[in-house]
Amino acid sequence: MYFLFFSTLSICSCLLAFTLLHKQIPPTPHTSSVTTNTEAIPSSSSPPPLSGKLTYDVFLSFRGQDTRESFTDHLYTALLQKGIHTFRDDDELVRGESIAPNLLKAIEESRYVIVVLSPNYAESAWCLDEMVKVAECKKEMGQKVLPVFYHVDPSEVRRQTGHHFGKAFEKHQKRYKAEPNKVQRWKDALFQVGSLSGWHLQDG
Among 53, 128, 129, 171, which residue's beta carbon has the most beta carbons within 10 A? Predict the structure, then answer.
């Protein structure tokens, strides 16, 4: 049972790694079952290409309590084994409410962002702030974003509904009642990223 579960994780991880390789990422200055979500937001014009310093091939955005020791760890290992320079934040357990400047910088300096949208992702204000930055970089810099829907339905992410994302936002709306713009930015970012083509990792 556990062997099959982790084999599925490994397969999905390798699939993502090979996808990035097939996109022929230029080098940076540093020596269950899987389905695809195909709904995407139409765009009238293409965003400008990435410019400025690119330190990483990939930035991983994830909720540690859900996937740090399972899917994200498999994915991180698979990416490194394929020579894909990847940023993964390992300080989640000691961080505070406000997103650290070094993380914002790492997002800006990454060619791709893989967002692992797991059941408890929306519980974290930190993860949601990352999501806002990712959506901003996608729009303004043409950054490529690859969402992984890990045991959540893409529609729940887009609409902030369901047992996980819906309940998380009920709490956020109460907690940040005096900051409605903050919550709306989170919702807008989730809608944008949740509407992108990505991978849907289901139970089983």
Answer: 128
Half-sphere exposure (Cβ direction) of 15: Cα atoms closer than 13 Å: 17
Six token digits for residue 116 = 């692992």
Terminal-residue alpha carbon distance, the chain:
9
Q: What are phi and psi of 175, to 5 degrees?
A: -65, -40
Q: Could you tell me which residues come within 8 angstroms of residue 31 by beta carbon, excluding any fewer than 6 positions away?
A: none
- The rounded Cα 110 to chain-centroid distance in angstroms is 13
* Edge-first strand listing for the sheet containing 198-202: 33-37, 198-202, 144-150, 110-117, 56-61, 86-88
Tokens for 111? 């060619």
pTM above 0.85, yes or no: no
Which stretch of DSSP H or E encloses residue 36?
Answer: strand 33-37
Is 130 a residue of the active site? yes
H runs (alpha helix) in the chain:
2-22, 64-67, 71-81, 101-108, 125-141, 154-159, 167-175, 180-194
Give per-residue pLDDT as tens, 124-158: 998 999 999 999 999 999 999 999 999 999 999 99
